[in-house]
Specification:
CATH class of the domain at 20-158: Alpha Beta
Radius of gyration: 20 Å
Distance between the termini: 40 Å
Number of strands: 8
Helix content: 40-55%
Number of helices: 17
Largest sheet: 4 strands, parallel
CATH topology of the domain at 20-158: Rossmann fold
Structural class: alpha/beta
Strand content: 5-15%
Shape: globular
Strand order of the largest sheet: 2-1-3-4
Length: 383
């Protein structure tokens, strides 16, 4: 596959993919395709894919519905939880509206309680995610994946075979490989493209329902970027930034904008919007598909895990491979696990990796954009 369009046009198409998918979602529903919505990277989408369902990430990245959510939820709650509930209760998220079931998980306390309220007006299946990565936890998580499979079989009157799950594993692994292949173009110095353009593809690909079509499209994009780089099309040399912390998207893209408008370039995303969700593949050689899925998903290095060595391992690898000059951590207000873990990340980045680190705590409003620009500009000047 060869991309004919110019790169800026391709990046904008990915950026607009979420809006385009609203209409595609209705078409899927009209055809009778089941839709399974989810909020978290721990969601084992291959189980839903194996029964022919479309999976979609639900709306939780705007402050539009937070005032409505605050009628039921505390104001001093994480904005992602409030936005998730607000879009659900107001029916302003088409993906939520069309979802036949919403899959939740016991990551943080706010989400766990939110799912209780959400289940009053929507079918919600909550998976019990362990908060450690021990052998005992792995067995629990494997049993939860099997329980999820059995729930879907009963709810939709289908049989989900291990052969179908194995096919879904291969299909989604190909998507992960292609996205990894794309973000690895940022290993070049100078960087070939802006980090915000890379983010548009990583984020937008989550709203493409034809998963089989993604690898060819994304690999072709990576090939075009490499070709243009070889021809001398690249950014000027800038401080190379790794972004870590809470999930980024929608309102919080202001962090990426602040970095890149003040002279930096984001070369790596460690968070759920980037490497955290696509770095590890599911083991296709493991004959036990449930064990393979359990091992892959439980290994995700989220701050809800105690201890959380996999996050540090991924950070170290990205810092080394992407020639990172500084680390920016974005934490959402009242996200306790990520806010508490900033101390460990600061120590790791400063002491072990010998790099500057800054934590910016924010919410979904745009009121702090000026302050963010001031702080990030000062940080970049140090590098």
């Amino acid at each position: 596959m060869e991309i004919i369009k110019d790169l800026p046009e391709v990046f904008e198409e990915f950026a607009e993919q979420r809006q385009k998918s609203f209409l595609m979602m209705k078409e899927l529903k009209d055809k009778g395709t089941p839709v399974v919505g989810a909020y978290c990277t721990y969601f084992p989408k291959e189980i839903a894919m194996a029964m022919g369902a479309s999976t979609v990430s639900l709306c939780s990245t705007s402050d539009e519905t937070i005032p409505v959510a605050e009628k039921d939820l505390p104001k001093n709650l994480c904005p992602m939880v409030k936005a998730s509930y607000g879009f659900a209760v107001t029916d302003k998220c088409p993906f939520f509206y069309f979802s036949d079931v919403v899959v939740g998980e016991t990551t943080c306390d706010g989400k766990k309680k939110m799912y209780e309220y959400m289940s009053e007006f929507k079918d919600v299946f909550v998976m019990e995610l362990p908060n450690s990565q021990s052998a005992t936890s792995l067995q629990l998580w494997k049993s939860e994946i099997v329980r999820f499979k059995e729930y879907l079989e009963e709810k939709f009157g289908v049989a989900i075979t291990e052969e179908k799950i194995a096919e879904a594993i291969k299909e989604e692994n190909e998507v992960r490989k292609s996205l990894k292949n794309l973000y690895e173009v940022m290993k070049h110095e100078p960087a070939p493209i802006k980090g915000h353009d890379l983010f548009k593809v990583l984020y937008g690909s989550g709203f493409k329902f034809d998963r089989k079509a993604i690898p060819a499209e994304v690999n072709a994009l990576a090939e075009k970027i490499e070709k243009e780089y070889a021809e001398g099309k690249m950014l000027e040399s800038r401080p190379r930034i790794l972004v870590t912390g809470c999930p980024i998207g929608g309102a919080t893209e202001k962090i990426i904008t602040a970095i890149e408008e003040n002279g930096g370039v984001v070369v790596a995303y460690e968070n759920c919007s980037g490497a955290k969700s696509i770095d590890k593949l599911v083991d296709e050689e493991n004959p036990d598909v449930y064990q393979a899925l359990a091992e892959r998903y439980l290994a995700i290095g989220c701050s809800v895990m105690t201890p959380n060595p996999n996050r540090l391992e991924l950070l170290q690898r990205l810092i080394d491979e992407y020639q990172v000059d500084g680390v920016v951590e974005m934490t959402l207000q009242a996200c306790h696990t990520y806010n508490v873990e900033t101390l460990a990340i600061r120590k790791f980045v400063n002491e072990k990796m010998g790099l500057p680190y800054i934590n910016v705590e924010t919410d979904y409003s745009q009121a702090d954009v000026g302050q963010l620009n001031t702080r990030i500009a000062a940080f970049l000047e140090m590098l």
